[in-house]
Amino acid sequence: MTLLRAVGLHVTYPGRHGGPPACAVDGVELDVGAGEIVALVGESGCGKTTLARALLGLVRPTRGRVSFGGRPLEYSSRALKTYRKRVQLVLQDPTGSLNPRHTVYDAVAEGLRIHGYGGDERAAVAEALSRAGLRPPESFFLRYPHELSGGQRQRVVIAGALVLEPELIVADEPVASLDASVRGEILALLLRLRTELGLSALVVTHDLGLAWNIADRVAVMYLGRIVETGDVEQVLTVPRHPYTQALLSVLPEAPGNPVVLTGEPPDPSRIPSGCRFHARCQILGSGEAERAGVEEACRDEDPGVLDGGGEAQVACHWARATITE
């Protein structure tokens, strides 16, 4: 069952000094199923955080819609408050996410108080901390963020999300600020929560290694669009889009030489014609696209928007021509 769905989602910001508008999210289709972990990957500036904010209702789409549980997201204060109880955000910087003047207990209980929880607050906070791996939970109640390690602070942030018993969490770079030794513990925690609670997750990251370790499905984003998607093993072992290939080539365990992309991602207010990646594409630059007979299409024809389903898809003329052969 599809839990969260984006359909034709656009988020556009006004241009600077009266210039053309910047299209941060440009026609994205994306599904997250019940009990599924989807990794949204791409380099900085590709629009993945803006997309996550739109899915959370923090940014209202310029066009398109977000639906949850089959119902379109409404943007009234009451509707958004109800929605955010079911969908929670976990940010990458636990130090910045926690008020240094609040105890762990108050940090975790804050959501309960906002939503007018009528049950046993102390028991709910203790259970959330325990699920997040902070045991015995009572020993953390009166501690402050500065008294905790980075991994413990991230667990407190996760507990603050879990206390409302959400159906889905959106985790924006959840381990980026943590030591390597702690990252595995947090990823294992997220996987355990999915198993124990049936929790769904959208994990926003630039790290394909993280996606490999945690996700069921991956969506690769470039310049406001999903350019490749499918089962994580399929996409990351046999990448078809040149951009995905380049991202994977720089991982330490990747075979061969890393692919060094030329230039910077284009300005989202001036998206190029044809494939939006063509100006940096190593396949086009090496002549492989010309040999496949798609060089002109790469420069002039938009490969189109991928649908949000779970099947493997790629927005690349060269990849499609190669598959056809």
How are the elements arranged and paired?
Layout: E1 2-13, E2 22-33, E3 37-41, H1 48-55, E4 63-68, E5 71-72, H2 77-86, E6 87-90, H3 94-97, H4 104-114, H5 121-131, H6 150-162, E7 168-172, H7 180-197, E8 200-205, H8 208-214, E9 217-222, E10 225-231, H9 232-237, H10 242-249, H11 282-286, H12 288-291, H13 295-300, E11 313-314, H14 317-324
Parallel strand pairs: 3-8, 3-9, 6-7, 7-8
Antiparallel strand pairs: 1-2, 1-4, 4-5, 9-10, 10-11
Overview of the molecule:
This protein is α/β, with parallel strands linked by helices and 325 residues long. It has a single domain (2-324), classed as Rossmann fold. The chain has 14 helices and eleven strands. The protein has a seven-stranded mixed β-sheet with strand order 6-7-8-3-9-10-11, sandwiched between helices. A four-stranded antiparallel β-sheet has the order 2-1-4-5, covered by helices on one side. Strand 4 (63-68) and strand 5 form a beta hairpin. Helix 4 runs parallel beside helix 6 (150-162). The chain is globular and about 65 Å long. The two termini are 34 Å apart.
